[in-house]
Amino acid sequence: MTAPLRLACIDSEAAPLFHLSGPDGSRRGYEPAVGELIAAELGRRLEWVYLPWAEMIPAVRRGEADAVLCGQGITPDRSALVDFTRPYAVFHESVLVRRGDAVNGPEDLRGRRVAAIAGSTNMALARTFTGALPVSFGGGSDDVFAEMLAALRAGEVDAVVDDDVVFVPLGEDPDFTLAFTVRTGNRWALGVAKDRPDTLAALDGALGRVTADGRLAGAWAEWLPALEYPFGGAGAPR
Length: 238
Fold this sequence. Notes:
Elements: E1 5-9, H1 30-42, E2 46-50, H2 56-61, E3 67-68, H3 76-79, E4 82-84, E5 89-98, E6 113-117, H4 121-126, E7 133-137, H5 144-154, E8 159-163, E9 176-188, E10 191-193, H6 197-212, H7 215-223
Parallel strand pairs: 1-2, 1-3, 6-7, 6-8
Antiparallel strand pairs: 4-10, 5-8, 5-9
């Protein structure tokens, strides 16, 4: 019997990337759709391995999952730990503040507390804002995104930096407003243990095929219609 494809992710609410898993373990959102496309292309059953953010890459390196498919921007630090497939998404980074706060650009964050996930591309960006006071939120949390939003709502921080996609559902939220976006073009991909080149090749090949024939573009159009599809070509949303 063919082994299931085990993909590591956190189990939290970060629509439209992903929703909390259902009682039967099923998942909905763009990243789950990508995982399903890859698994189907490989003829394997998909199995999610739920872990805190900081434990995903270590678990993959220990062989407890085949890959991470969960908000992994390709960075030098991560690339030293795992090998990455081609990207399944390209996102920019945005800054969220409380509605009514006068923040229109990085210069307005001087002296303000800016939250981001520790060790993330978002924290790296926050540290470039001159005079801002970066506040790290630990990757050991089961729902670090919700914790950052709660801190912003309570006034414990003054801004949150994250990828633009996770802020899409907050456009009508009465408590928050999107201050500005930095077009960083972060490439997201699946991370695979360095001692598993065959797994990397299989996942990369499957992702390449579902990108080339438009299936990936279809998933993007379903879940991320407000964002520009980054790969163009056949099947790209119009």
